[in-house]
Amino acid sequence: MKNMIFVIGLAVILSCNQKDNKEIIVSKNESKTEIMEKSTPRIEINYSKFYKEAKEYTIKNNLNKDKFILIDLGLHSGLKRFFIYDFKKNTIVKSCMVSHGCGDNQWGRTSSKEKVQISNEFDSHCSSLGKYVILDRGISEWGIKVNYILQGKDKTNSNARNRAIVLHSWEAVSENEVYPEGTPEGWGCPAVSNESMKEIDELLKTNKKVLMWVIKS
């Protein structure tokens, strides 16, 4: 009888250990799957042709020859897609998050995080592609209370100033990537995080007539 009780007890203990081990393994597998699903995709895009054209454009139009800004709205809005390029170093010196226009979606949501709507029309609440020149520093109602006037230089963004499209910061924009979530959408202005705007502001206070080029890769 004692031997039978011992055998039964041992079987129970082994059964519990196997169950615990299985739960741990399942938990680890679920965690790994979640990380894989939510991990930031490694997207590599060759922007060299844009850098080359931007440099030629700045020389031809007497713009800042040290830095320029490239915004790629073809990327998911949960990824960094605002790039500051240094012509002298031939490299990106800063990248950050940036919002785009909500279009016919609700303001402040992330409805078009994967497919941005583009328009140059008034009241479209959309972002516009094309080259801009960053002009005067002004006072904003948003973020760190600083904005920069954007002068559209192409047919695709010719209404920028009349639409009050400016570069500014917004508390809703994250400093870090949030993929697969998106960045809250405004009414067409490129808005960055407060921390990023502090750095950009310092850059633009000493670098005048900087080119900002909004593309969709």
Quickly list its features.
single chain, 217 residues, alpha+beta, 8-stranded mixed sheet, globular, disordered N terminus
Q: How would you sum up this structure, described in words?
A:
- By secondary structure, this protein is α+β, with helices and mostly antiparallel strands.
- It has 3 helices and 8 strands; from the N terminus they run H-H-E-E-E-E-E-E-E-H-E.
- The chain has an 8-stranded mixed beta sheet with strand order 3-2-1-8-4-5-6-7, with helices on both faces.
- Mean pLDDT is 86; it is low at 1-38.
Q: What's the average pLDDT?
A: 86
How many strands appear in the DSSP assignment?
Answer: 8
Q: What pattern of helices and strands is seen along the backbone? A: HHEEEEEEEHE
How widely separated are the two ends? 77 Å
Radius of gyration: 25 Å
Low-confidence stretches: 1-38
Number of helical stretches of at least 4 residues: 3
Task: Please state roughly what percent of the residues sit in beta strands, choosing from under 5%, 5-15%, 15-25%, 25-35%, 35-45% or over 45%.
Answer: 15-25%
**Helix proportion range:** 25-40%
- Structural class call reads alpha+beta
Instruction: Kindly report the spatial arrangement of strands forming the biggest sheet.
Output: 3-2-1-8-4-5-6-7
Which descriptor suits the 3D outline?
Answer: globular
Largest sheet: 8 strands, mixed
